[in-house]
Queue: 4 jobs
Job 1
Amino acid sequence: MMKWKRQFALEWNHIFRNPWLMGLPALYGVLYAWFLSAVSPLNNFFNEAYSFHALVQTLTLGIVMLLGILAIRRDIRRPAYEWSTGLPLAYGMRITAKFAAAMAYLTLFSLLAAGLFVAFSYGRGIESAVNISHGVYFFVSYEISYVVTLALAMLLAVCLQNRVVYLIGFCAWMFGTFFMQLFIVERYNLYILRTFHLSELFVEGTRGYELWGYGTDIDEMIRSGLFVLAFAALLLTAAVTILNLLRPTKHGARLWFTAGLSVLLACAACAPYGLLWSDRYSSYNAKINDETILDIVSFWDEPTEMFEVANYDLVLEKAENGVLFGTARLEIPASALISQGKEEITLTLNRLFSVSEVKANGDPVSFTRQGDLLSLPRSDAPEQRESVSLEIRYSGKVAEDNGKGLYHALVQRDNVLLPRDFVWYPFPGMRHVYMKEDWSNTLQLGSMYKEMPFPAAEYRLTVKGFDSKLYTSLPELEMQGNNGKLLGADFKMQVFQGFGKDGISLFGGPFVEVSVPSLPSRIITTPSSRALAEHVLQEWSGYYRYFASWVADFEPKIQQVGYFVTKQMMNDRSENGMYLIFASHSGDNGYAGLLMTEMLLGTRKGSFQIENMRKDIRLPLRSLMWYVYYREAEGLSHKDIENGMADFRMLGALFHTDSNEDPDNLGGRMAEEAGKAIDAGKISQVKEILNYFYTQGMEIPLEEPDGPAQASPIPYEAWEREWERVMGHENGA
């Protein structure tokens, strides 16, 4: 042991007494601190820090590669030092001492990466527990990357005595990072190979996000990390074995036994990682090869069958092993089944769940499953009852990989992502959950391309056994927790109840709740996005005060907002009074105006169905509400607004409209009339007209071709009549 310590001290001095090498961590720390200090308060701090590490840590691997090669070429593979082979010092001792000294130096980068992040995060008011968790993740990722890269560099230097090893080392660095990322992993969706990526941070996927990020890959990271460490040990053992073969040794048997043992250890460490991906690929390929899952062309032409449900009573419990056990009780009006005229009841439930029992009116019934469809016979004539009660018990473990390193749905530790379109509870009727993208040979949730309807029903949802507080679009009974505080493992049972017409999604993670007294809504987001949420709420509350001061019968259409910065592929939408924003990049994108529009005017997702503006002017009317705001509250003139001094996303139906959608420029004509009236001091009359149409409804929901109308169009003639009634013959002059 004394020999190893002296060798380690020698290697330590070679590194830590080199001013050039010691200047590199200092330079790294200065650059990192400057970058963190320049991050906007409105950006997600973790995402910004990760983007820095993804590039800079990959660049530091070049230092690791050079350091490993120099450590070997300095004496072991240098002809002038051949005499050192006669020293009574085993190659294993020399290699491990060099490796340990180099890792001690490289750990300076890891400590700076973690320490500076924690310090700057704390300065921004982010919770210490969150900071430390992220800091540990950065530290461990740096260390694992450095371990395998250093071992690879030392093996290359042992194998190649010529100076060409520097070129080969550079190629290995480039291939193991940028080339592998861009041309192998991403191009061919071979995310199983990311364990061979030299950088743990320069990997495409969800890990660079605070929400549903690296926390969802803990199992994979542990298995991958163990394999990488075992593989690094194999590389070092190979280097020692090659060197020992260059000189006579009496420990040949021990040498080959150690080499064989390292190979077996690496293979054993690879097995759990391979099994994890084997399960993912088998589940994914089963869906790709399933002919009942349609391609995009057939998917668009396939209708969604749905019947009425009066009440849902859902119970979802998470066991300690992560398996979900669900019980769904549906109260179905008999008239809904009679109108279908079918001999069986068809439900849709994601194929990931296995159904254990189905009861109809309290009696067990037989059932069949094909893919996502669940079919059961009607036990008796529905005419004899007012309603039919169904009870379905099902279970399954949710971690649905989409083949691109992302998830369709997941329940892992405190991370919960159960979107409504995943159909995690029984849907009444037949719908296609998945869709194939032919051009990329990948699988997507059908809702990414086609809006799906959901039944309007009374819901009661009980969740048990989850590790974090869950959020959904239904009101929670007996709300718990303090505003703005992290909500953790104290919430073992929650009950949500209310009316829903947009389906039910369920979310869990490291969330905080942010609200202000002047606004009847809150934003649910992650700790690093708290500052943005506070900024949006302040701006939003200003809009709210203005519109609430004159809009008659103003009933807010959203009561809470989910702002989720995540890589998971989902569309922004409104769901039962909750507006969901899924952003892949942080920062303010005019969210306050968007949310005020949703709160005041409701959805406009059916706007593309308006083909004739003369028959339906709801879009210009919605824009006129904002036109009045900019004229009165912001003090802008009509010319200022035309010149782009207002947010054109709110005014798109009035200015520079598409001639195909509004050939008569009715939107521009309405804006001009309102502008002249405001200039003449008749803003109260303009508000009266807008209030008249507001009470009729300016929401533009998506209308189903065969379904009942959800909202009535407002023709241009109605505008002319109301304008004539209020303004008389002055026409705004």
Note: The CA atoms of residues 349 and 425 lie 6 Å apart.
Job 2
Amino acid sequence: MKNCEEKSKRFLIGIFLLMVFTMPIKLKANVYYIFIDNLSVPEQMLIKSIQGIVNQKVKNGDESLHSVYTINRDVDLDWLVDYRSQYGFSTNLKQFSTLYSYGKQYIDNYVLWSPGNTWTLNIACTYAALHQAMVLTPQLASDLNIAAEKTLLMDFTQDQWYYPDMNSGAAETITGKLDGYTWAMNHLLPQCDSTKIITLKDNIPDLRDMIFFDNIFTINLDPLNNEDEIALLNTILSQYPVGATMLGWADGSFATEPGQDEVTVERAFVKILSENNMYFVPSDYANNLSFHGLFDFPSKLEQQEKTGKYEQGKKYVCFIASDGDNLQYDMNYMRTKMWENSYRGKVPVGWTISPRLYEFAPFIAWYYYNSAAQDDFNDTFVAGPSGFSYAYPSSLDDNALIDFLQKTDMTMKEMDMSCIVSIDITGKEQETYQKFAEHTSAKGVFLTEKEHNAYLPEYDYVFQSGNHDLGLIVEMVRVDDQPVSDLVNQIRLNAFFNKFVFVYFNVWFDNLDIVYGIYQDLKADTSYRVVGPAEFMDCLMQYHLGTAIEPDNSSKLTPSDLTLHQNYPNPFNPETVIAYTLPAAGEVELNVLNTRGQKIKTLINNVQSTGKHQVKWDGTDDQGRKVSSGIYFYQIKFDNKIKTKKMILLQ
């Protein structure tokens, strides 16, 4: 355990130093760019290997080289134009033959991979990255006559593999994918970047330059159905320190059984990663990370967030966009479908975005911050699931969770964020998000999926730790492509029972017009306020903690209604505090009930003055006996009114 803690500390320090001391590179030469969308898969893989190796040389100080940029979709060209405008470098379009000729000037070796066994590609790329070699298929190697100029280090199309190379190593017989990845784990993984690993479907070119740029071990193993591959995956992951990062995305084709789909694969993969105390950065189609990583922010990231003042009688709604943890979404779909949408900026939205852009693509983060709508604070950024990276926080062990929260807090401060969206397993919400309150300075957490409500006292809640309060709310309404009227009715129904409604919209449905329609409907009703995430959490905490203020901000409210606050701590052991606010002096009764509604303890039964009061319950019944662990209710009766809340005792 101590060794894991030391590894975690070293990794955290390394990330911090990377963030603090990464300086912007001023390119002294042209940027060579090439369209790869019309190339064959073997040609794409060759170009990506050249790109990663050349850009690594630029990163390591050879700024006279021409860095390489690949265009696989229209938005890649948009980003290049923006870079050129901001940094002032010139660009030069290359064809396949001319870029290959340029790259081979600086690369002496090559390896072969098998298009008939595509699983060899990831292994070939990992090996080639460590040996500064290009990757080719036998046919492409023949077409280019590369053997006349360069040295073949390894032929992964054969069943005899050698280490360190085919000219000097002992042969090992490889009979298939499991043998191949086991060989790679034994010989290649120890030499690779110890803080990052990639999972990548065999035919995807986009992320592949990062293998060469940072010498990253790369896999594509089944996390769902193949027990042998699951076992090997866990063995590989166990060799990484706490807090290592997985880039890429789980291969949806592993969903081979009835009822399984890509989401089933995703959940299985993220669960395995979290259980191995690793963090996921979705990025399979994140193109040109080896180029984006050469630049720092043009200026400091800052966003303006409106503070909240809870108003009695108002109902609060907050729209949060999904999928911002996904680098390829941040780089592609977010810009083309969301950011350039005519409705963007006309409705308050919390845009999830990956804090890891700070590390992998600073300019792209800066672009969004610099172009956000300032009117009415309608574009604000929150940390995409589940903070520092995509993980199930409740699946992390205690040390890894603290590490995760420290990194979350550090990157959120650098990205000037105050709120988090979290995706998590169920069952440990109270324990996990109490730690969020203790180890981050975040204002609030938006927890997706309604199932979490079964494990919390109510949909919205406040965790307290010293001087820091953390608001939390569970998703109530999800927007896909339903009619606006149906969604408005869902929101109004939820608002009948809850003053705060978290609406999560699935961006892949290109549904910002639907969100705008909902906003217009609610805006016409003066009892509703649609606000940004920071303002929403301010109001939520003021409501729960009894610190609500009048709209004119002049004084604290005189209580106008009976208020029963959530107990704290919750769950608790051995005692908890229950607070309540009386609108006038009078007789009040406060009892503890079991799940059958039977009274087990009377806490208060007398006349009290107006204002806020509190009482402790020590987990005993009226006879002074300790009660068992479980769910209990506390109920207040005052002036013919009754209010009840849930609490959990853990012995």
Note: The chain has three domains: 21-292, 315-545, 563-649.
Job 3
Amino acid sequence: MTSKIGSTVLGHPRIGPNRELKRALESYWAGRSVEADLREVARRLWEDTWRGLAEAGLDSVPGNTFSYYDHVLDTAVTFGAVPRRYAELGLGALDTYFAMARGTEAVPPLEMTKWFDTNYHYLVPEIGPDTSFSLTDRTAVEQFLQARELGVEIRPVLVGPLTFLLLSKPSEEDFDPLDKLAELTDAYEQLLGELHRAGARWVQLDEPALAADRTPQELDALRNTYRRLGDLAERPAILTACYFGDPGDALGVLAAAPIEGLALDLVTEPSTADRVVATPGLRDKALVAGVIDGRNIWRADLDRCMTAAATLLGSAGEVSIGTSCSLLHVPYDVDAETNLDPQVKPWLSFAAQKVREVVTLGRALREGREVVEPELIEARAAVADRVRAERVRDNRVRARLDSLRPQDSRRTDYAKRREAQQKSLRLPPLPTTTIGSFPQTTDVRKARAALRAGRIDAATYRQRMRDEVERVIALQEDIGLDVLVHGEPERNDMVQYFAEQLDGFAATDNGWVQSYGSRCVRPPILFGDVRRPEPMTVEWAAHAQRLTDKPVKGMLTGPVTMLAWSFVRDDQPQADTARQVALAIRDEVRDLEAAGIRVVQVDEPALRELLPLRAEQRPAYLEWAVESFRLATSGIAEATQIHTHLCYSEFGDVIDAIVALDADVTSIEAARSRMEVLADLNEVGFDRGVGPGVYDIHSPRVPDEEEMEELLRAALKAVPADRLWVNPDCGLKTRDYPQVEPALRNMTDAAHRTRP
């Protein structure tokens, strides 16, 4: 008889409450520690996670959720999908893994892109006719046995076979990775068998790809795969997790499959609950009702969550409480925030609090609400206080939005703008620039830490940052770049920096979330109406411009990205919040122009990220996303050149929106994909300036001049020289100067050699 799964979460943060994994990884990569040191840090982290979740009262603890870099890459390694160019490097297993993630001097890394509509990045597996799947890594089994020795029974978590292949990239044209599904399923069968023999009672297979539109052929593949896995004689019970949206027709397929449980996201699309009630095949299955939001940080309305879960009783053989998705996307513990706004803090729930919410609701569902009445009362008070808080609404902002006219989001014709900009800027063909940030040196970080600790005053800090700006400007002039940046030494993060200066945002000290590998971000908390009290960047851009005769770009973050990389209020439509942010950015653009800045870049790297997974929901999103960008960048002179930047996304789905942004120049990630995106731009007749990245800054390797020249010549086949810009893929903040300086010199030399 299958054991009950009970209250659970679908995954957990893995970087460590104090970013222990980040520090251990970077120490290992820098050669300051050895593999055994890194593995010891990792072991402590996953063991602490298992113990903590068990002690918190979860009925089922997820395991195999730790990763040294990325769980999709882990899946590729588990089943032997290691491209030959990495296998032939002759490295050990861990260093081969990191070569796939980060590249080496000789071999570029795998492509990287966004994990569905989140700000987490995954490595894109390469699957081709010669890919041979087999069970080559048994970490899932080993971790199960390790946890059992600690007295904790974990539920191993794996990326499901269909999602893994749907997220993969064919290594050859005209090849479909799904053609390898039967072979991959063989390897999954072997792993499930080994987990069964090790004593695992449940295994979780994550299939978030089912939240997107799926073809009849893909649904048939799902049906056949889960029939095969379900028919295995020796295996753990299978919990298939569908999150980030409604699984649509896949729900019926899985309900009919011979598996034991489903975990469903009831937060992203609450109407999914209605589909559950109408699906009879679930009545002999366990259902984990994902009523606790795994992606946002607002304290749950426990009464409403309880009601939502209770309505499903009778629709499944067992109903238990869970999170909507893995808690990978939220910080560890709100109690670690000692400086957070005291009114806002009780409104919040990070991973530790969400686990407690799951446990509380689980008890209420099993034993009745009265056993957790104190917790329910506390939650009601916090939710009510947030609703009543006066600071959430700013009537000045709302009145300004109400007064907007259609022409406030429109610029003059592009041809006129281009002529005015050419006269003003006088740039050569293939102008060179960077995306914004330069490496943040140890001295810069020490100065910021000293300011926070009160060891230096604000005036001293500003002077040190001005000195750094002067150094960065001098370096760019020496390299020979055409359009310069001030380097952003004063900024801790491209979103948090602005959030700390805007009304309506709150910032954390320890609210770190993994973006990829060792890269962590601290998303600010957008809790109320947004307003700009004073200029945010003008001082720095104007100082940089006074140091050079070359144009300096003002650097801003766009409204969509401000939302995507923040924890956003859920009490009003995102479109309304985006327009509020757009007004604040609009004011900054105009002030930069007034200060003599002739080029302003408004970054929107997250434009694709927020795109709904279902096609029918996309037009409404793209309409407000484009409109908010245009609101932010209109109302300025024709001669002021607007740039935007997009990175690490599949651009084909938003290509029309990129055109509609009406930016004068768009820079995009293209180095890892070898300029593939340019075909999409040509297909829609894109006729603006474009800067496809020729330097992949997410890898430590330094591309040589010939490699970048080859990319530029490939780009020139798609983009004429008078519209082509030369730049890296992204900002340089995470790299070191010994990497950046030679790479930028190679990039500039490649541009000079390629110019007509």
Note: DSSP finds 27 helices and 21 strands in the chain.
Job 4
Amino acid sequence: MNRTTYTPKDFAWTAWTVADIKKLAPEILAEKKARLAVIKKINPEERTFENTVYALEASDHGLTETILKIDLLQNVSPDKKIRDTAKQTIETIEKQMITVEHDPKVWAALKDYEVGSWREERKYLEAEDQKLFRDMFLEYKRMGFDLPPMKQKHLKALEQRLAKLSNEFRHNINAHEDHIVATEEEMIGLPERYKQGLKKDKQGRYIVTLAYPDYHPFMELAQSEAKRKELAEKFLKRGGAKNMKVLEEMLAIRAEHAALLGYKTHADYQTELRMAKSGDAALAFSLDLLKKVEKGGKADLEELRALKCEMTGNKKAVLHFYDIAYYGNELQKRRFHFDSEEVRAYFPVARVLEGTFKIYSTLFGVTFEELKGFSLWHPDAKLYAVKTPKGEVLSYFALDLYPREGKYGHAAAFGIIGGRSTEFLGDDYIAPFATMVTNFTKPSSTHPSLLSHSEVETFLHEFGHIMHCVLTTARHSSQSGYHTSWDFVEAPSQMLEHWAWGKKPLALLSAHHETSKALPASLLNNLLESKRHLLRYATLRQLILGIFDLTLHTKKNPPEPNRLYRDLVKKHAGIIMPKDSLFPAGFGHLDGYDAGYYGYMWSNVYAADMFTRFKKEGVMSKKVGADYRTWILEKGGSIEDIELVKGFLGRKPSNKAFLKEIGASK
């Protein structure tokens, strides 16, 4: 199959101006209308898979990619005018595209095909083509075309409003900025490397922002309890009161939207297309797992409270939400004889990247090459090609690793160009392109960017998403890369996190940033022994978040989000959250992952089970890596998720490995 190759001209979009972006919305919408018009004109008796189903799939070709480019610029452009214009353009496209795509004549075309040629064609269509039609038919059915005209109109209005609110919710989180200031004395516990990376105010005090590279080390290392409290309370107000209002309206619209379509809850609507299939099943899974880990999670926190009592000399000391990271690190130092800063010295970004490339080259039979002469949206962003051992280009990806003002504040993989065949039965293939966006500490003139071990896990996880995107061979873009069920999409990346806990992979990922020496054996062994450090609490926290999300989307009249979150944390973890906190306002997963956060735990079951093959046959096994690439990474969503796992494992999946991993096997 011949794959496209890209030149610097193909990345001219990274330099789009405000005027360029403003022109795109009407062009995209006009082209989409024109493509649908051709499909609608076909006579019912002449409909085929190619001129109807594939044509509908192809009606997005090129257009979706342009929309995703605009969305990426909204999240990564250093120019606020570009970000704001991109945001407005995305809102315009999303609102008007609902009107364009919610076309009863398109639904009629699919129904004509279903009762016509489909009955004969399905006998010889490829499995992925059959799945494409079934999925597409269900998607259009869920648009409510069988509703009375007035209800259809109202449904469309709800979806347009929800699209605008969704974009606003994300924007408010990204745009939220706040900080604390700290004196030299209040910075005790923080390393010089960290302090040198901070700005200072006119009084010479350090400015600590809410950006991840500032926030997490401070919460973990700062001895000043008062300053940890101040920073944590500000962090809990990201998104602000305005996002609480946005969320309130989003929840109401989602519930009304689901009810109009005949679903009991928004969670039922969302999970219909996922492995869970219903909100009740997702909630039951989460609550059952909660029973298995709650006691252990609370025991982890009690250990931290006991340590605080000892270190402060106060036998009645209370463990607060802003203490967990700090005393977790202190306990780790005592129990495993190392601290996160000591380990960080062995994980410079350059070494982690080099090691990741070596690991994935070995496992998946590919090579990576940084491309020069390509201008992207910021000098920090670098472009790479993925090639076969013979030098043939398979795909491309970019890495944008360091924080800056206005940039997306978390870690994520953005699929921009999905892999796909250029024609229905053609031999040419569009090379995928994806971007990994993170916020690791930026290197300075005196210090390289050094990752904590947990950040190495994050790196492997997000790069796993990139591999899922760029190694796809799926013929249809809606099935390529990580276009799987939403509660399976994390599994391939979660599985690859295990390489942060193996001696062979760690030898490739680590080397002291000054001496290039390997991790000392004692430090390496202590690090590996710490794998389950606070794991029960971490699992408990994930489950609480998943249950919080599902409760908001399964209850007819859900509790006020802030109160619900505080109550869940208090009940299941015993931690008191401040009444004036606005955690839901900054919980970005409530948009995009709505009624889906449970999927992190759900997919972890499959991730742990898939890793059993590597554990048994070797974490650097080329054979297992090739099978993983073939079954999991290449196929994407072209077959059912459960069949992907069965194909790779050669058996039905089990939850035994997962329960053992989290210490809940009994």
Note: The first strand starts at residue 2 and ends at 3.
